[in-house]
Amino acid sequence: MLEISREQFAKIVEQALESLPEKFKEKINNVAIFAEDEPTAEQLKKMRLRRGDLLFGLFEGYAQAKKLNIGPVLPDRITIFRLAILSQVDSFQEAKEKIIATVKHEIAHHFGSDERGAAKASR
């Protein structure tokens, strides 16, 4: 498996966010973005997955298009999973591309896209 440190991985996630078109960056609202090694047991259960199943990223929350203005709420959460991504790539460049695609995919969920729409956004 390719080795990229947690710090370097988090930096690439940050760069992926910075590289988004301005029209999307302006609209990202009340979402916290994390880079973790792997999903928690709770996240796996929520997704009906088992330890060892591949999950590159996860959006947890309510899509912006479906939110009601009810006052202050906890932020939505996007998590990008380092070990799953690194297990599927052979080079640093390939890892960077997979991280960027995963960030775009999860941001698309934040904006309300289903899996098919999010898959398009990640290309």
Major beta sheet, strand line-up: 1-3-2
Radius of gyration, rounded?
14 Å
Enumerate how many helices there are, as a single number: 6
CATH structural class = Alpha Beta
Return the string of H and E elements: HHEHEEHHH
- CATH T-level fold name: Zincin-like
Shape: globular
Q: What characterizes the major β-sheet? A: 3 strands, mixed
Helix/strand/pairing category:
alpha+beta
Explain this structure to me?
The protein has one domain (about 5-120): Zincin-like (2-Layer Sandwich), CATH 3.30.2010.20. The protein has about 120 residues and is an alpha+beta fold. It has helices at about 5-20, 20-25, 40-45, 80-85, 90-110, 115-120; strands at about 30-35, 55-60, 75-80. The model has no long low-confidence stretch (mean pLDDT about 90). Helix 5 (about 90-110) packs across helix 6. It has a 3-stranded mixed sheet with strand order 1-3-2. It is built from 6 helices and 3 strands, in the order ααβαββααα.
SSE inventory with pairings:
Elements: H1 6-18, H2 22-25, E1 31-36, H3 41-46, E2 57-60, E3 76-81, H4 82-86, H5 92-110, H6 115-121
Parallel strand pairs: 1-3
Antiparallel strand pairs: 2-3
Helix pairs in contact: 1-5, 5-6
Which key phrases capture this entry?
single chain; alpha+beta; Zincin-like; three-stranded mixed β-sheet; 3 strands; 13% strand; globular
Brief rundown of the structure:
The chain is an alpha+beta fold. 44% of the residues lie in helices and 13% in strands.
